[in-house]
Write a structure and sequence with these properties.
The chain contains 9 helices and 11 strands. It has about 230 residues and is of the alpha+beta class. The mean pLDDT is about 95.
């Protein structure tokens, strides 16, 4: 299962046979997680990190009134909470948006691999920097892009990220999020999110049915998003 993680790393950097063996050795166990389960709660002490092998995870923060903002999505191949290795707790929850399989990586194994393989420490530092770039792009969407542009942008980004690990088709991908979860990703009300999907459908650029996103017009979707993938560092 860790092959999907290696595939993601190799899309950006070289990984030697020795480094691959070390990476394969960090996973202590795999766990299956049901959709809507909270894997990590804000503030709890962390001794393990998680690699996502299958499914979709989200980082989220809640307001006292119950409103939730998704601050990041993780797809297969991602280290979902690598920064928890140094912070030892998170300021947000990590929740499953679909049924998932995760690899549990004890922090002591991460400590060992970064000491024995300093280049891998830089590789994973690079990975957290890319996560930060994705987060900045989301902040730009929430602050400045229109609803239709930010939704189109997210669809374009996910297509590229899933394609890296072989989980996208040329014209789309599995999309397990509910409309409410999509709205929480984009800072929209449920009604506004639904209207935005309908507008993209009316423009004949995407179709979202039965948890499948079909891209009918790639160039048109990227044009609406003003999508520039350079922040993904591929």
């Amino acid at each position: 299962m860790i092959n999907v993680h290696l595939k993601k790393l190799r899309r950006r950097v070289e990984i030697s046979a020795e480094e691959e063996q070390a990476i394969r050795g960090v996973v202590a166990e795999t766990r299956s997680v049901r959709a809507d389960q909270i894997l990590i709660r804000s503030g709890e002490e962390l001794n393990n990190a998680l690699i996502l092998f299958e499914g979709w995870l989200a980082r989220s923060k809640d307001l006292p009134g119950g409103d939730r903002q998704v601050t990041g999505l993780h797809v297969a191949g991602d280290f979902a909470d690598l920064h928890g290795f140094t912070l030892k707790r998170l300021d947000h929850d990590v929740v499953a948006f679909s049924d998932c399989v995760v690899g549990v990586v004890p922090h002591e194994r991460l400590q060992d691999i970064t000491e024995r393989h300093p280049r891998l420490a830089r590789v994973y530092w690079y990975s957290t920097n890319v996560d930060a770039a994705i987060n900045r792009e989301l902040a730009l969407s929430l602050g400045q892009r229109s609803a239709i542009s930010r939704m189109a942008h997210l669809f374009c980004e996910l297509h590229m990220r899933l394609n890296v690990v072989g989980l996208a088709r040329s014209n789309g991908y599995d999309f397990p999020l509910t409309q409410r979860e999509l709205a929480e990703c984009l800072g929209l009300t449920l009604v506004h999110a639904n209207r935005t999907i309908q507008e993209l459908r009316r423009r004949n650029v995407v179709e979202l049915e039965n948890r499948q996103l079909t891209i009918l017009d790639q160039r048109g979707l990227e044009g609406i998003a003003e999508f520039d993938p350079s922040y993904l560092y591929l």
